[in-house]
Amino acid sequence: MELSVNVDIEKPIKEVWKAITDFKNCTSYIKSIIKLDIIEEPKGTLIGFKWKETRMMFGKEATETMWITDYAKNKFYQTKAESHGSVYVSKLMVEPNNKNTKLTMSFSSEPQTLFVKIFSFCTGFMLKGFMKKELLKDLNDIKFHLENIK
């Protein structure tokens, strides 16, 4: 499954970048994240930054371990997670849009086991719609937070 969502934020790229890399405080403005525990915090780079993130998914708490695999400051960072027989890759990108910033999040999942491949084939269309809504909620939470800072 692959999908992408974006929002336009009325702030410069550097402010949006600061918000999307503020892992220590993101639970205060991204409503879906219940808890975030940092596991590894390399100095001077985002590559290898690793954390456990707990969210509400389908009415239950779900915790995933994620880490950053690639980044370019003030442009993008890419994360990876491996769970429930799948590999998940997400990417947050910032780019200029006139005086504003376009914040885009892409997400892909790649089933690794036969059972998960069959399950994904049968339910993928429903999961894609759900995931798209959830990603857009996160982006809108970031947008609201940034545009309402006094």
Characterize the structure shown.
- The chain has 150 residues and is of the alpha+beta class.
- The chain has one domain: Alpha-D-Glucose-1,6-Bisphosphate, Chain A, domain 4 (2-Layer Sandwich).
- 28% of the residues lie in helices and 46% in strands.
- The protein is built from 2 helices and 7 strands; from the N terminus they run βαββββββα.
- It has a 7-stranded antiparallel sheet with strand order 1-7-6-5-4-3-2.
- Strand 4 and strand 5 (76-83) form a beta hairpin.
- The chain is globular and about 50 Å long.
List the helices and strands and how they pair.
Elements: E1 2-9, H1 13-20, E2 33-40, E3 50-57, E4 60-72, E5 76-83, E6 86-97, E7 100-111, H2 114-147
Antiparallel strand pairs: 1-7, 2-3, 3-4, 4-5, 5-6, 6-7
Strand order of the largest sheet: 1-7-6-5-4-3-2
User: N- to C-terminal separation?
Assistant: 39 Å
Our count of domains comes out at: 1
CATH class: Alpha Beta
The overall average pLDDT, rounded, is 90
Give the gist of this structure.
The chain contains two helices and seven strands; from the N terminus they run E-H-E-E-E-E-E-E-H. It is α+β, with helices and mostly antiparallel strands and 150 residues long.
Please supply descriptive tags for the structure shown above.
150 residues, alpha+beta, Alpha-D-Glucose-1,6-Bisphosphate, Chain A, domain 4, 2 helices, 7 strands, globular
